[in-house]
Amino acid sequence: MSRTDYFHDPAAPAPNSIKVAVSALVQDDQGRILLIRRSDNGKYSVPGGGLEAGETVVQAVVREVREETGIEVDVTELVGVFSNPEHVIAYDDGEVRQEFSICFRAQPIGGKLRTSEESSEVEWVRPAELSERDIHPSILLRIQKGLEGSDSPYFT
Q1: Active site residue 121
Q2: In CATH, what number does 3-147 get?
């Protein structure tokens, strides 16, 4: 399924759903960030996805990172809650979702990089190289807040 992201766009369609999602800022011991290139919109992103019934948000993070990248992680802390109503995602099935993602920091503990149906590329990227990737502003905000290392979580 393809998607179109709208951000502070007055022409964006009105949202008709909200779904709890999780995302993860994963850094290796060299400080590189785990990024995927999304299959549905071609943009680079931290791994993440929807919370499924019967799982905790931590279980969802571990599952989503594994599914999209092949990397096993240990979730270490909360980065923040990102719920900007000005970020709307329109899917080709008619769903128009308002952003709602709980972002965590996580460290890799195993696995090997691989792509999936949801990720056409998976790579470790140095923070200085982020500007070379097409990353949505809401994802860049999650990365920025995660790299800041604040004592308290960010939220909107």
Answers
A1: yes
A2: 3.90.79.10
